[in-house]
Every structure is written in structure tokens, then in C-alpha cells.
Write a structure and sequence with these properties.
- By secondary structure, the chain is an alpha/beta fold.
- It folds into two domains: about 180 residues, Rossmann fold; about 100 residues, Glutamyl-tRNA Synthetase, domain 3 (Alpha-Beta Complex).
- The chain contains twelve helices and twelve strands.
- The chain has a three-stranded parallel beta sheet with strand order 1-2-3, with helices on one face. A three-stranded antiparallel beta sheet has the order 4-5-8.
């Protein structure tokens, strides 16, 4: 897949909001840290709108996300890349993996997975796939000819995969024993998140991924995909989440501490930047812009604990 080869640039970071809800303070913190990390190394910052989930995406939120980022004082070096515009490239990757026998068609539904689980555990959000369809269908067309919708799963190797996270240190996950073969295309034909971000990061030449640590478990899956597609692996940095006063992670669906609300209330964005800077271990006491705070940024000084905040903190 020569078209997917990463560009030769020293450091390329990215901001990748999805238009499924309003951006909140948790996003602000992660995006500021991602921007600081790339800029501190003299690198580029790209903006990618991850809108493949058409059922949940709202096109009006694309402009809203960009307004929020610009309000914070963030910029990017190229025109925004809209993920859905590159879906053909994603389908090419899926076809390649199928043709090489590294992926296979799967007609299992979520109900099938639940029924196949021998002992479902309370609180488990992702059931391990037992490989039911691993050798069931010779081709995707054959699976669809069965009369059932078919997705595509990656054949995940056995054994632990280790990598170094710039924030969390050495990590090891056994994807096969924990998750099993995972979806790279849904049963409706839409490329899955894991595949999309890998292909798009390579296409855009991204060399550093800074994101929330709720996505830490996605990293080994994405590394397996990068190896299967012979793509370069970026550096990884997973940032602790922002939580509310009750210790719950901020959620888009609740418009929790949204940047649009803070902006509507007349909050100075420099106040938000200063709060993020303080939470990131930067010894700054005054309201400040991202650019003004940049010289004080050090990724290795980032605290490993979650950050708690409330709306009142910014309104008093």
C-alpha cells in the first residue's frame, strides 16, 4: 500500500475531534497537550474530523468544533481533513487484508457474541470474540451470500504486544486473549474506528498520537493493524482524563462543561488555557494563550493522575 506511506517529517501531531457532540474541558485539555507537544518539537499539527459514524455524527458540529479550537487559540498547518472523504482508501485497506488472508468475513451479531460467551461478567463492556467465523467463509462475497450482513475482522496473533507510552511508560496487552479478532469493518460495510485511524494517520504522515487514556487499550490493536499493513508506528502518549466532582469522566452526550457554554458565558479562553497548563504541571499563574505557555511545556512533567473540575471553577 504505497499510497499509505507516511510523509517524511520530523514531528507531525494531530487533533482529531468527532462531530458527535460538543467539545468539553476534557477535549480542551487533551488537544492543548497534543498541540503543545508537537509545537514544542518544532512539528506540524493537523486537524482531522472523524465523522465516519454517520448515525451519530452531526455535520453542524464540525464547524462548532473548529470554533471551539480556534477560541482556545489552537491552529493547524493544513486544511482540515474530513475522514469520510477518504473512505475509499479505507476500503482498499480492508480488501488488501482480506486478499492476504490477514482478515476474514464475519456474520456474527452482538447477540451471537453474548450467547457465545461462556460466562459473561458483570460490568464487562466488550466481549471477547471466540473466532466463530475464522474459517467459516472463503470470501466476503460468500459470507454475504449466506443472507446475513457481514463485517470483517483482523486475525490477531497470539501473545502479548508491548509498546512504550510517553506518559504511561511500558505497556503490554494480549489482544487475542483479551479481545480476540476485532472488527475492522462493521456489518453495514462502514470501516471501523481502529482501521480508520491507522490508515488516516499513515496517509497524513502522523508521527505522534496524543489522546485520552481511555483509548490506551486501542493502541495494541492499532499496532497489529500497522504491522499487517506495513505502516510506520507513531509515538503514543495517553493523557489522563478530566472527571467531574463525582469522579465521572466528562461526556459529550451530557454537554458536560462544554466549551460552547463557557464561551457563551463570556469566559476568557486564556483562563481555560491557564487551568490546563496548571493541570499539566506547568508553573504558570496568569491567564495565558497556548503560544505564550508553549516554552514551559514538558510532556514528561505531565502528572499521571486524573484531573477533576466543575463549571463553578470557571464561573466564580
Amino acid at each position: 500500500m504505497s499510497a499509505l506511506s507516511p510523509a517524511e517529517t520530523p514531528v507531525v501531531g494531530r487533533l482529531a475531534p468527532s462531530p458527535t457532540g460538543l467539545l468539553h474541558l476534557g477535549h480542551a485539555r487533551t488537544f492543548l497537550i497534543a498541540w503543545w507537544s508537537a509545537r514544542a518539537q518544532g512539528g506540524k499539527v493537523l486537524l482531522r474530523i472523524e465523522d465516519l459514524d454517520s448515525a451519530r455524527s452531526d455535520p453542524s458540529l464540525i464547524a462548532a468544533s473548529m470554533r471551539d479550537l480556534e477560541w482556545l487559540g489552537l491552529d493547524w498547518d493544513e486544511a482540515p481533513y474530513v475522514q469520510s472523504a477518504g473512505e475509499e482508501r479505507l476500503q482498499v485497506a480492508i480488501s488488501e487484508l482480506l486478499a492476504r488472508g490477514l482478515a476474514y468475513a464475519c456474520t456474527c451479531t452482538r447477540g451471537d457474541l453474548r450467547n457465545a460467551a461462556s460466562a459473561p461478567q458483570l460490568g464487562v463492556t466488550e466481549i471477547r470474540y471466540a473466532g466463530t467465523c475464522r474459517d467459516r467463509y472463503p470470501t466476503l462475497a460468500a459470507a454475504r451470500a449466506s443472507g446475513r450482513a457481514a463485517g470483517v475482522r483482523l486475525r490477531v496473533p497470539d501473545g502479548a504486544l508491548s509498546f512504550t507510552d510517553l506518559v504511561r511508560g511500558e505497556q503490554a496487552f494480549d489482544v487475542q486473549s483479551e479481545v480476540g479478532d476485532f472488527l475492522i469493518a462493521r456489518r453495514d460495510g462502514v470501516p471501523a474506528y481502529q482501521l480508520a485511524v491507522v490508515v488516516d494517520d499513515a496517509f497524513q504522515g502522523v508521527t505522534e498520537v496524543v489522546r485520552g487514556d481511555d483509548l490506551l487499550a486501542s493502541t495494541p490493536r492499532q499496532i497489529w493493524l500497522e504491522r499487517a499493513l506495513a505502516l510506520s508506528e507513531p509515538r503514543w502518549a495517553h493523557v489522563p482524563l478530566v472527571v467531574d466532582a463525582a469522579g465521572r469522566r466528562l461526556a459529550k452526550r451530557e454537554d458536560a462543561l462544554s466549551l460552547a457554554e463557557l464561551r457563551a458565558r463570556g469566559i476568557d479562553p486564556r483562563r481555560v488555557v491557564a487551568w490546563v497548563a496548571a493541570s499539566a504541571g506547568m508553573p504558570l499563574s496568569e491567564w495565558i494563550t497556548p503560544g505564550e505557555a508553549l516554552p514551559a511545556f514538558q510532556l514528561d512533567a505531565l502528572p499521571s493522575n486524573q484531573v477533576s473540575t466543575t463549571t463553578a471553577e470557571f464561573l466564580r
